């Protein structure tokens, strides 16, 4: 849709992920290739940081070939940073590790 905003999440030595947010639909699409698989006890978790506080957006896992095509509801209004961490399966309420992919909203 016309209101869509595109953001590229990048990380050291990792394939980037493109995120498209539609405020009108309240939906985020996550698209990427060559994402590293995580082991069976882990999952990728997407965070939106407002006022320095990370809020959980969604959990996701790449396909076996490393591709990702996911959509989920999200409101990213006023977000400062978007980031991805690797969390224990089931996800976490706050990030337990460093962000492996991130995007800073200027």
Name the features:
106 residues; 4-stranded antiparallel β-sheet; globular
Write the layout of secondary structure elements.
Layout: E1 5-11, E2 14-22, E3 27-32, E4 42-50, E5 53-60, E6 68-73, E7 81-88, E8 101-104
Antiparallel strand pairs: 1-2, 2-3, 3-6, 4-5, 4-7, 7-8
3D structure, described in words:
The structure is a single chain. The chain is mainly β. It has no helices and eight strands. It has strands spanning 5-11, 14-22, 27-32, 42-50, 53-60, 68-73, 81-88, 101-104. The model has no long low-confidence stretch (mean pLDDT 93).
Regarding quaternary structure, how should these chains be classified?
single chain
Which percent range fits the helix content?
under 10%
Amount of beta strand: over 45%
Main sheet record: 4 strands, antiparallel
Helical/strand content category: mainly beta
What coarse outline follows from CA principal-axis ratios? globular
Strand order within the widest beta sheet: 1-2-3-6
* Ends distance: 22 Å
- What's the helix count? 0
Count of extended strands: 8
Topology as a string of helices (H) and strands (E): EEEEEEEE
Low-confidence stretches: none
Which whole number gives the mean pLDDT?
Answer: 93
Gyration radius, to the nearest Å? 13 Å
């Amino acid at each position: 849709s016309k209101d869509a905003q595109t953001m590229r999440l990048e990380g050291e030595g990792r394939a980037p992920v493109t995120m498209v947010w539609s405020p009108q639909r309240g939906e985020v699409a996550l698209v990427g290739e060559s994402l590293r698989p995580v082991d069976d006890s882990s999952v990728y978790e997407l965070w939106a940081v407002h006022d320095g506080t990370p809020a959980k957006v969604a959990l996701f896992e790449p396909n076996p070939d490393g591709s990702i095509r996911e959509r989920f509801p999200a409101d990213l209004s006023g977000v400062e940073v978007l980031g991805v961490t690797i969390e224990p399966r089931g996800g976490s309420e706050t990030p337990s590790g460093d962000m492996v992919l991130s995007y800073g909203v200027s």
